[in-house]
Specification:
The structure holds two protein chains of two kinds. By secondary structure, chain A is α/β, with parallel strands linked by helices. Chain A has two domains: 89 residues, Elongation Factor Tu (Ef-tu), domain 3 (Beta Barrel); 169 residues, Nucleotide-binding domain of ferredoxin-NADP reductase (FNR) module (Rossmann fold, 3-Layer(aba) Sandwich), CATH 3.40.50. Chain A is built from seven helices and 16 strands. In chain A, the strands form three sheets. A seven-stranded mixed sheet of chain A has the order 11-9-8-7-12-13-16, sandwiched between helices. A six-stranded antiparallel sheet of chain A has the order 4-3-6-1-2-5. A two-stranded antiparallel ribbon of chain A has the order 14-15. Chain A is globular and about 50 Å long. Chain B is α+β, with helices and mostly antiparallel strands. Chain B has a single domain, classed as Jelly Rolls (Sandwich), CATH 2.60.120.10. Chain B is built from four helices and six strands, in the order ααββββββαα. In chain B, strands 1, 2, 3, 4, 5 and 6 form a six-stranded antiparallel sheet that branches. The longest helix of chain B is centred in the C-terminal third of the chain and has 26 residues. Classes of the chains: A alpha/beta, B alpha+beta. At the A-B interface, strand 4, strand 5, helix 1, strand 10 and strand 11 of A face strand 3, strand 4 and helix 4 of B.
């Protein structure tokens, strides 16, 4: 038997899901004081197709890697769009990446919003704060499939008027025929003429036919808990309420266990879960 | 004529979420204390510290509950919308409003004379109990909403997990 050593220059690396692909920042846009949207393109020529609700692991060379939801249009696979809030070392570095800068991307990862469940039904997207970013792909999908839905409604709550994410897009959606956009803020000065109050108060008043509604909810976990309770109390079937959760993700592919929530690994089994799968876990403070 | 007016008001009250499902006998009683009112954009339904002698069932338009702060202008505490109740301070002493209530756009409400209703509730504890059963969830819901807002849920998170 002859042993032949693999040529490291030509041997293909096994696809374990751990190898980042090279991407380049093509455009960056500041959304809020601490929040930037990056548009990225693959340098290996393979577009990163994704389903609404999935995320990627973004790797800033020499700094680290974090999980970020995809916030772009799933029909535009050539461009990877992600909205990032600067809250720590890696996310700050991502927010500061200039156009032309390279970075590593793993993914798309995780389970998507079950958009097929919304076909023939009313779809309500409930988002809080930056939770609008992970739900934006499902809004794009719904807009492209409006004739297959009974309706599309967007319920959005955030801290204050100056913290509204994608304000021009929300304004555009609100003027679309048959699409309702409800926005509420926690606090406002006198120049704000919209709603003031928690997003969970707005949800019941915007439901059209609860029994025929599929809800997709993303935001701070307490907000999602109360929103899901409100949707269920109003008559939305619990199996048709879906939440996008977050935990401390590291590997992103179910190896390391950092993002465990009871029997689930958020990166592998989620981040999107049907409400009944996580309902009781959301009140266990040890988790 | 007066009878038909009261019945009409009873129907209006029964159509509002606050009093929906109440016995007709009770909505008739409540109707004797109620009247329909219109407020123009920017008009005040009531102002803080005024006697809480009329509360409102919001039927059309929006109302901002506000507090004025020197140097900061009007701060909106909460907005109310059709189906909501404007004013809960009429229930308990000292019967004075805690906030300003300002019409946002044209507002249609049914005003309920709180003094009239309190005296009817005092005279008929069954009515009083039913009215309290309707108002307590309103107060509890607003308390819960206030608690959620106190949590400042949308404040930037720590640098862990998916940074959205």
């Amino acid at each position: 038997m002859t042993l032949i050593a693999a040529d490291p220059a030509t041997a293909a690396a096994p696809d374990t899901g751990m190898l980042p692909r090279p991407f380049e920042v093509r455009a960056r846009r500041r959304e809020l004081a601490d929040c930037v949207t990056l548009e990225m393109a693959a340098l290996d020529g393979r577009p990163l197709g994704f389903a609404p609700g999935q995320f990627t692991m973004l790797y800033v060379h020499g700094v680290g890697e974090i999980a970020i939801s995809i916030s772009g249009n799933p029909a535009e696979a050539d461009t990877l769009v992600q909205t990032i809030r600067a809250v720590g070392a890696v996310s700050r570095a991502l927010c500061e990446l200039p156009e032309g800068q390279r970075l590593g991307v793993r993914g798309p990862l995780g389970k998507a919003w079950p958009v097929e469940r919304a076909l023939g039904k009313h779809l309500m997207v409930v988002a809080g704060g930056l939770g609008l970013a992970p739900t934006r792909p499902v809004i794009y999908w719904a807009l492209a499939n409006r004739d297959r839905l009974k309706s599309l409604d967007i319920v959005y709550g955030t801290r204050s008027p100056d913290q509204i994410l994608y304000p021009q897009q929300l304004l555009g959606w609100s003027s679309a025929e048959g699409l309702r956009v409800g926005i509420t803020v926690d606090r406002a000065s006198e120049d704000w003429t919209g709603r003031v109050g928690v997003v969970t108060d707005l949800v019941p008043s915007m439901l059209r036919d609860p029994a025929e509604t599929v809800a997709m909810v993303c935001g701070p976990e307490i907000m999602m808990r109360f929103a899901a309770q409100g949707l269920a109390a109003a008559g939305v079937p619990q199996d048709d309420i879906h939440l996008s959760l977050e935990r401390n993700m590291k590997c992103g592919i179910g190896w390391c266990g950092h993002c465990q929530l009871g029997p689930h690994l958020i990166c592998r089994d989620g981040p999107v879960f049907p409400y009944p799968a996580v309902r009781d876990l959301m009140t266990v403070w040890e988790l | 004529m007066a009878d038909s007016k009261i019945k009409s008001m009873a129907e209006i009250l029964a159509a509002h979420p606050l009093f929906a499902g109440l016995d007709r006998e009770i909505t008739d009683l409540l109707g004797g204390c109620a009247t329909n009112v219109h407020f123009a954009d920017g008009a005040y339904l009531f102002k803080a510290e005024e006697p809480a002698d009329t509360f409102y069932l919001l039927r059309g338009g929006d109302v901002a509950l506000e507090v004025s702060m020197p140097g900061r202008g009007r701060l909106t505490v909460q907005t109310l919308h059709p189906g909501h109740v404007v004013g809960a301070s009429w229930i308990l002493p000292p019967y004075r409003w805690r906030f300003d209530a300002r019409a946002i756009g044209s507002v249609r409400v049914t005003g309920v004379d709180a003094t009239c209703l309190r005296s009817k509730c005092d005279a008929d504890p069954r009515l009083g109990y039913q009215v309290m059963q309707r108002f307590l969830p309103v107060v509890a819901e607003r308390l819960q909403s206030t608690r959620l807002r106190l949590l400042d849920l949308y404040a930037p998170p720590a640098d862990v997990g998916r940074a959205l």
